[in-house]
């Protein structure tokens, strides 16, 4: 059974002061003077899987709470890791695993961002799921209570001891210390599933990969990186489909942005899935998020940019933009079908897109060129992921600016 420890941490300084406590029992802890107090909740009972048992509790907290939380939901093998690398790159510096920690950690850290993989909140290890007859997509296989408590704590500026799911062994490893970052990305199967976690998100994204494309991507990844056979991959997809439809796919109705990856319409009866049609579905009315538009906001139009300013080999490139309705929400849709021959020519496309949230002309193209070796860099997948990264940076800056306004300054506005 999971228990939580409630601690009240006090400090005589109002500055950004890190503090650490070690404790293995459920009790209230007081440090310092009563001038500054922070409360936090952390897990004191974790499962280690079949390697053994143990209890670890290390807490660190800061006196400021400005963590912005972004959620990215998608099925397994749908490019979440690549998306995270693009997003964190926009904020500067490469996101890397924690130094000196568990080499199988799923966490990525940079100066500004922390990426948490929600697989770490599995309640059951791989063998446990087999014994219970459930997949990782089933809510019963995940600890949403702990997920909620820890995301809430990090958003409030409090560090946590987060579990680690070891993808190599399939076991639950000892936890790792996660300090509250400026921007917390939580990515996985269920970041928008639990209403409590969903309410903590400042922005949410859903990657919607069509079955045809998903199979091609998952086959390539699992055969090359994980040594799985084609037969086992097919069996895994079929075994997970009912749970995916029931527990993962419905999350897209709550997402602020959906990126749909579909087979191309430029090649009749295409079976190779190398050319893709990608749709950026942007919900209207999201605070601090103005949808990107092509040429004229609110219009409906198609654009073929191939010609003297953009090199296009067969089957070419086609853009679409227009208003639409998605799961009962008013949205704006930007679509790209086809792929770029030369990324350095992307500047021509960028110059016709508006509300990109770039800080200077050509920044989107620069970001794409920086990661030209990433999967999807020659099509709408990479382009729209990069655009969302720029939009999230603007959203973060707006949220921080709003939090920095004093009550007196806010009163003057009115």
Automatic annotation (TrEMBL):
Reaction equations catalysed: D-ribulose 5-phosphate + ATP = D-ribulose 1,5-bisphosphate + ADP + H(+)
Protein name: Phosphoribulokinase, chloroplastic
SUPFAM superfamilies hit by this protein: P-loop containing nucleoside triphosphate hydrolases (SSF52540)
Gene Ontology MF terms: ATP binding; phosphoribulokinase activity; protein homodimerization activity
Family: Belongs to the phosphoribulokinase family.
Pfam family, one: PRK
Domain Phosphoribulokinase/uridine kinase: 69-267
Pathway this chain belongs to: Carbohydrate biosynthesis; Calvin cycle
Localization per Swiss-Prot or TrEMBL: Plastid, Chloroplast
GO biological process, one term: reductive pentose-phosphate cycle
Enzyme's top EC category: transferase
Organism, as annotated: Elaeis guineensis var. tenera (Oil palm)
InterPro entries according to UniProt: P-loop_NTPase (IPR027417), PRK (IPR006082), PRK/URK (IPR006083)
CDD domains, per database record: PRK
Keywords from the UniProt entry: ATP-binding, Calvin cycle, Chloroplast, Disulfide bond, Kinase, Nucleotide-binding, Photosynthesis, Plastid, Transferase, Transit peptide
Signal peptide: none
GO cellular component term, pick one: chloroplast
EC code: 2.7.1.19
